[in-house]
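Whiteboard transcription, Tuesday session. T.W. wrote the C-alpha cells on the left side:
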C-alpha cells in the first residue's frame, strides 16, 4: 500500500487524491454441519500443502473481495463546498473515513493541507463517559487547538448547540439529536480548514438542519472547505458549488451541482431494480412503518405514461413494524432532466392523518396532472405526529408525461414545466 499524507505545497488546492482504492474482505457464512475427524485431518493437510507449495493455494470460497472505492482521483480547492452524492454502497462514507484518517486505503495517494474536523456519525470523536463540556475541550485538543483558543469559542459552541442545560451531563445520556447538535457545533466552530459532514444531520430537526446549512455556508465564505454527503438533492444545491457522483466505488462525474444531480437521477432511474419494491431506497427514518409498494393509476412498472390534465392516483402500500399513533404521508415529484422538485403533495395540507388499525394498509392521493411532457420520478415518505421521519423512499417509481394536443394547442416544454387549468370568468 502506498499512502501519502504530507501537506500540499502552498496553493489553492487543499485536497488531492490520486488512484485511491479501498478493498474489504467479506466473509460468507457456511451451512452449519458437524465437524468430524476426517474434516480436521483434511484441513490440516491442506494447510501444510499451502505452506510447502504456496502457488498451490486456492482461493477461499467463503471469502470475497469487495472494492468500496476504485481508483478515485480528484482535487478540491480552498473554499469549495463539495457535495458527494450516490446511492447506498457507492463508497461515499468510505471516502470520508479515509479523508478523516479513520481507515487507511488499500492503495493510492492522499495529500491534504490543513486541519480536518469530521462529523460522520452520531458521537464521532466523543467519549461517552465525559460531559459535554469536557468533550468540547477534548475535541479541540484533538484538532490541535490550545485551551485558550477553545475557551474563546466555548460560548459560541454552547449557544449554537442549544444543550447548555445538559452541558455537565455525560454525553452517553444525550439523545441522538442532542449528540448531533453538540458534535456539529464543536466541528464547525473550532475553525478547521476542512469540515467533513456525512448525512448525520438527518437526525436533527428541520430547524437545526437549516441552521447547520447556514453555518456551513458561512464556513465556505470564510475560505474554508466543506465536504458534504447527502441524499437530499435540494440541500446539495443550496449548500454546494460543486458535486461528485460516486457509483459502485467509481467517481463517474464531477461538475456543478445541477449537472451532477441530473447525471445521478438519469443514472439510477435507468436501472431495472430501481422500479422494484424490494429495492426501494429507504434513505432515512426510524422504520416504525415502511412504504412497501407505490402504484400510479393502479400500475406498477417503469413504463407508465400519463397525459397532461389526466387524473392521477398515487397509492402507497405500507406496513407497520412498531407501534405508532399517526401516519402523515408526503410525495415529491422530480423532473429527471434537472433534478428539480416539480410537485409536492403533503397529507397534512388536507388536515387529515392516518391512525393505523392493522399492520398493513393502503393510502392514496388523487390530483389532476399539471406536468408538461417529460420523464419524472417519485420520492415519498412518512412523518409521525411530531413531524419526525418514519420512512423516506427516494426515486421509487418513474413515469412519463406524453406530448398532447388539446383544443389544437400542443403542450410541450416550450410552454413551461407545469400548466394549471384555472376557472376563467368575466366580472
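and on the right, the sequence the group agreed on:
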Amino acid at each position: 500500500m502506498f499512502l501519502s499524507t504530507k501537506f500540499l505545497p502552498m496553493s489553492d488546492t487543499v485536497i488531492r487524491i490520486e488512484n485511491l482504492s479501498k478493498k474489504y474482505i467479506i466473509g460468507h457464512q457456511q451451512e452449519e454441519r458437524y465437524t468430524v475427524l476426517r474434516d480436521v485431518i483434511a484441513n490440516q493437510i491442506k494447510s501444510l500443502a499451502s505452506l510447502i507449495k504456496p502457488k498451490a493455494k486456492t482461493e477461499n470460497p467463503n471469502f470475497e473481495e469487495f472494492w468500496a472505492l476504485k481508483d478515485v482521483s480528484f482535487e478540491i480547492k480552498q473554499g469549495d463546498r463539495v457535495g458527494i452524492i450516490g446511492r447506498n454502497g457507492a463508497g461515499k462514507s468510505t471516502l470520508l473515513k479515509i479523508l478523516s484518517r479513520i481507515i487507511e486505503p488499500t492503495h493510492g495517494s492522499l495529500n491534504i493541507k490543513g486541519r480536518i474536523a469530521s462529523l460522520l456519525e452520531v458521537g464521532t470523536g466523543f467519549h461517552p463517559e465525559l460531559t459535554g463540556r469536557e468533550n468540547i475541550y477534548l475535541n479541540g485538543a484533538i484538532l490541535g487547538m490550545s485551551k485558550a483558543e477553545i475557551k474563546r469559542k466555548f460560548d459560541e459552541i454552547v449557544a449554537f448547540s442549544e444543550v447548555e442545560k445538559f452541558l455537565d451531563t455525560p454525553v452517553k445520556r444525550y439523545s441522538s439529536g442532542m449528540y448531533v447538535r453538540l458534535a456539529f457545533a464543536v466541528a464547525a466552530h473550532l475553525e478547521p480548514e476542512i469540515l467533513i459532514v456525512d448525512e448525520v444531520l438527518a437526525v436533527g430537526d428541520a430547524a437545526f438542519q437549516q441552521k447547520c446549512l447556514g453555518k456551513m455556508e458561512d464556513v465556505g465564505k470564510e475560505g474554508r472547505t466543506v465536504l458534504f454527503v447527502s441524499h437530499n438533492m435540494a440541500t446539495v444545491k443550496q449548500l454546494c458549488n460543486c458535486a461528485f457522483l460516486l457509483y459502485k466505488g467509481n467517481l463517474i462525474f464531477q461538475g456543478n451541482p445541477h449537472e451532477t444531480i441530473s447525471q445521478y437521477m438519469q443514472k439510477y432511474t435507468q436501472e431495472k431494480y430501481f422500479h422494484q419494491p424490494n429495492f426501494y431506497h429507504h434513505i432515512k427514518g426510524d422504520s416504525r412503518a415502511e412504504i412497501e409498494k407505490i402504484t400510479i393509476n393502479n400500475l406498477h412498472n417503469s413504463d407508465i405514461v400519463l397525459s397532461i390534465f389526466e387524473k392521477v392516483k398515487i397509492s402507497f402500500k405500507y406496513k407497520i413494524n412498531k407501534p405508532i399513533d399517526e401516519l402523515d404521508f408526503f410525495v415529491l415529484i422530480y423532473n429527471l432532466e434537472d433534478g428539480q422538485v416539480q410537485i409536492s403533495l403533503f397529507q397534512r395540507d388536507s388536515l387529515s392523518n392516518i391512525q393505523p388499525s392493522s399492520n398493513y394498509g393502503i393510502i392514496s392521493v388523487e390530483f389532476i396532472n399539471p406536468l408538461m411532457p417529460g420523464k419524472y420520478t417519485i420520492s415519498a415518505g412518512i412523518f409521525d405526529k411530531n413531524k419526525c421521519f418514519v420512512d423516506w423512499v427516494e426515486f421509487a417509481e418513474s413515469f412519463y408525461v406524453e406530448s398532447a394536443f388539446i383544443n389544437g394547442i400542443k403542450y410541450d416544454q416550450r410552454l413551461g414545466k407545469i400548466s394549471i387549468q384555472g376557472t376563467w370568468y368575466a366580472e
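Someone added at the bottom: The chain has a mean pLDDT of 81.
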